[in-house]
Design goal:
This protein has 290 residues and is α/β, with parallel strands linked by helices. It folds into 2 domains: 10-171 and 216-288, Vaccinia Virus protein VP39 (Rossmann fold, 3-Layer(aba) Sandwich); 174-212. It is built from 10 helices and 7 strands. The chain has a 7-stranded mixed sheet, sandwiched between helices. Helix 3 runs parallel beside helix 4. The two termini are 29 Å apart. It binds S-adenosylmethionine. Residues 36, 38-40, 63-67, 69-70, 86-89, 92, 108, 126-129, 206 line the site of S-adenosylmethionine.
Length: 290
């Protein structure tokens, strides 16, 4: 497999991306959530910062808030942008914006009112949902700029990502097991009881929770979306380690990766970036056709 790449903008070369690193290094030190395990860390926060600086959207939708680190980053990078922050569970938030520009909602992306979307709007998906469906919905709602965080390679990860779509690998959610089964049964039982007690209750259980989000192996999904893509760009890792986060060799056969921005000689100077370098998951940007 190779890194898919389409119409990379000229000013997105590594040496030009690096011009933003020192200023971001200082911003990162001011992040509100120091322990964001399970959420964004240096490599992808830098990627998102870079994309926001380049695109300068006036409206940003963030799907997947968790503790609120990305909300803080978007708000700080674009103080005048309107931000719609979505997560079915708003209780994880530790950083809650007080800005009038930020609106929170626990309803899903597909259930929002996007009848009027400014042309330069950007949607940032960090919600572990099916990216094939997300991309088609985003396009039909009028979004042209998309950033996706969970761009897992074909053999890894719990999400049907762009890289999986491109490789035709489908998705085999391997998290099934006795613990998952018990959790799924409990969720379904509880949902049933709640609905018996309250006939008006609408409680959507996520496929993700039940580990039933498998996708067949097919190249068709990529063929269907390729014609919508004007630009596809994978943000490079800052540092590339010898082993992946899954413990195997970080080689180009299983883990095609853009050339890293820095080499190990610079790990002292950018120690936060180096410490978080294992959290890289091939964040990507797509510009869809008009
Ligand atoms: C990886 S975390 C997000 C990290 C966050 N962006 C940050 O900056 O640290 C994934 C989040 O997606 C949320 N999520 C799950 N299903 C979702 C959905 N359908 N729409 C939006 N968010 C969803 C989860 O509740 C979780 O908070």
């Amino acid at each position: 497999m190779i890194v898919y790449n389409k119409n990379k903008p000229r000013d997105w070369e590594n040496k030009l991306i690096l011009k933003y690193l020192d200023e971001f290094n200082e911003i990162y030190k001011k992040r509100p959530i120091k322990n964001n395990h399970g959420g964004m860390s240096f490599p992808h926060m830098f990627g998102l910062y870079f994309f926001l600086k380049k695109i300068k959207p006036s409206f940003v939708v963030e799907s997947g808030i968790f503790k609120g680190q990305s909300t803080w980053l978007i708000e700080n990078t674009l103080p005048n942008a309107k931000i719609l922050s979505l997560d079915p569970n708003l209780n994880f938030r530790q950083y809650i914006s007080k800005s009038q520009n930020v609106e929170y909602s626990s309803s899903d992306f597909v259930d929002q009112n996007f009848s009027e979307v400014p042309n330069n709007s950007l949607v940032f998906f960090d919600d572990h949902q099916n990216f094939y469906e997300r991309l088609l919905c985003a396009y039909s709602f009028g979004f042209k700029h998309i950033v996706a965080d969970d761009n897992y390679p074909s053999l890894q990860g719990d999400t049907y990502s762009f890289k999986k779509i491109y490789s035709g690998s489908g998705l085999n959610d391997k998290r099934t097991g006795i613990k998952k089964l018990i959790k799924a049964l409990l969720l379904l039982t509880l949902n049933n009881i709640k609905k018996k007690l309250n006939k008006n209750l609408i409680n959507t259980i996520q496929k993700y929770e039940l580990s039933i989000q498998d996708i067949i192996k097919t190249k068709n999904h990529f063929q269907n979306i390729e014609k919508l893509i004007e630009i596809y760009f994978e943000f490079p890792p800052i540092f590339k380690k010898k082993f992946t986060r899954w413990g195997d060799n970080w080689d180009e056969v299983n883990y095609p990766t853009p050339k890293p921005l820095l080499s190990d000689e610079q790990k002292e100077q950018y120690s936060d970036a180096y410490k978080d370098s294992g959290n890289y998951t091939w964040m990507c940007y797509l510009k869809l056709i008009e």
